[in-house]
Amino acid sequence: MAMTRINIDEPRWDQSTYIGRARHFFTTTNPANLFCSASELEWARTTVTKYRNGEVVDLPEDVLWRAKHVYDSAFHPDTGEKMMLIGRMSAQVPMNMTITGCMLSFYKTTPAVVFWQWINQSFNAVVNYTNRSGDSPITVKQLGTSYVLATGGALITALGLNSLVKSMPPLVGRLVPFTAVAAANCVNIPMMRMKEIQEGVPLTDSAGQKLGVSSSTAAKEGISAVCLSRIMMASPGMVLPPLLMNSLEKKGVLRRMPWIGAPLQVLLCGICLTFATPACCALFPQKAAISVDRLEPEIQAKIRAMENPPTVVYYNKGL
């Protein structure tokens, strides 16, 4: 029996609901995809390519979606090139749990703060480069500027706060890395997407048809939403472990077993990030809506001059 043709270029689950978006991102960020063999990746690429070209692919629907999810986890959506392993979305949890756990464990000395904040921003730069858009590519100069400013922002925040909190309770010191990461995100993401802020993000109608206009206001809203979701994504893994470690320190556990600190924090970060990464990616719809009334006056005028002008328009928020 012929399988009903499905659109594999759209997510499998309804993206207008939070649950649908969360299921999509749980699949996208699944670390198990990192263990796919070269032959499995090639099978997924061949299957998806054939299906997109209209060829008959005799597979059950679940197997076809499996091929699509494996393909998405390893190949760039615009160029089709195989992505660097540590830059893939499926590497987010294992990489971030290691880096975050170490940032939380080694936060007291200046060399340790400098090293781990630098490692974190270097990893962010690799992820941003690997997942760069084919439509609005990041230049090497833009990537380098963003990397330097984000690393500088993180270091200034971390080292500055470390010097301020020396006389405060130990828990306050343990939360400094989170503040530094939040500050870096607020620098890094707008810098990486400066072109959108300057030139605007393309607007579409509800059917996805481009309206031929771009809005800086929409771009700024989208970037603000991404900054918020990234900070919230980091929150559980950078706030809950310090609370637990502070409690263990008070009970004398860390004095008796000092070696347990770093492994325990890496493990706790991993548990938190496994759920926080997809849950926070799903906070805002990828296809974001904005009322025409809230756009720049000149953009409003262009849209209202169209035949059957929409009152709400849509844009790609980014991740």
TrEMBL record:
InterPro entries per the UniProt record, alphabetical: Mtc (IPR004686)
Membrane topology summary: Multi-pass membrane protein
Keywords (A to Z) from UniProt: Amino-acid transport, Membrane, Mitochondrion, Transmembrane, Transmembrane helix, Transport
Gene Ontology terms, MF aspect: monoatomic ion transmembrane transporter activity
One GO location term (cellular component): mitochondrial inner membrane
GO BP annotation list: serine import into mitochondrion
Subcellular location, principal: mitochondrion
Residues passing through the membrane, by range: 147-165, 171-189, 264-284
Cell location: Mitochondrion membrane
Pfam families documented for this protein: SFXNs (PF03820)
PANTHER family noted in UniProt: SIDEROFLEXIN, SIDEROFLEXIN-1
Family: Belongs to the sideroflexin family.
Entry protein name: Sidoreflexin
Source organism of this protein record: Hyalella azteca
Gene name in the database record: LOC108680044
